[in-house]
Amino acid sequence: xxxxxxxxxxxxxxxxxxxxxxxxxxxxxxxxxxxxxxxxxxxxxxxxxxxxxxxxxxxxxxxxxxxxxxxxxxxxxxxxxxxxxxxxxxxxxxxxxxxxxxxxxxxxxxxxxxxxxxxxxxxxxxxxxxxxxxxxxxxxxxxxxxxxxxxxxxxxxxxxxxxxxxxxxxxxxxxxxxxxxxxxxxxxxxxxxxxxxxxxxxxxxxxxxxxxxxxxxxxxxxxxxxxxxxxxxxxxxxxxxxxxxxxxxxxxxxxxxxxxxxxxxxxxxxxxxxxxxxxxxxxxxxxxxxxxx
Length: 293
Ligand SMILES: [Zn+2]
Ligand SMILES: [Zn+2]
Description:
Layout: H1 2-23, H2 30-43, H3 46-72, H4 91-113, H5 115-122, H6 135-160, H7 189-206, H8 210-228, H9 246-256, H10 267-271, H11 276-292
Helix pairs in contact: 3-5, 3-8, 6-7, 6-8, 8-9
One zinc ion binds at residues 173, 179, 228, 250, 254.
């Protein structure tokens, strides 16, 4: 009964979204995007698209999304939005982080990316323009991937903090107490594999077109670089997403090495009470702010 009800709620919701979509004006970028997509299909093999295409998408987006946070350190006006003001970014840390990132990206992630082509072939995942899902279906599937990744991340990340194993793997990610965007993927190779698995579970379950791989990479990178940015920017549109954890949530985790284990949403930390120290800290800060007014 409950399953039938949820199916009917889901189909009504998708009908409503389809209706809204039909009212929207034609996307002016659709035609150039279609041409570019078809050009790619006509000039490159599926292996090249899945492997080198995915590598390029990941590298370009990673450093592009890190760029605003990187530039903020040179803009005095942005200092007031830095969460841990007493720990500014240093060249030494950023350079060290950059070198480890390149190693992780090309020696750990690239071999994994090479599996993309075989995955799409095995599950007959299409590449063509005609079967590409509409933007709202992509968004819904990315949300599904985020919920799955967040759940995986919460439990495995919490496990990596266990006192018996913390120093062997996860300690590397916690090397910088005040995080900065580039640190998002600064981790021990084993952590890249363990926590990275959460990224692929959603893909395995929900992928219906190769574009979902790149859409989900985009969403995941925006999220993880935002929460590691070290800045809490007012009017950040990501903070409008219900239950979105945000930069203060993860910054607290890096500052204190405890609590706030989830990557994207706040519900697991709420359910297990692992956000209690974060909440107490926020209450304390509010009182301090009131007194100073
Ligand atoms: Zn982190
Ligand atoms: Zn941690």
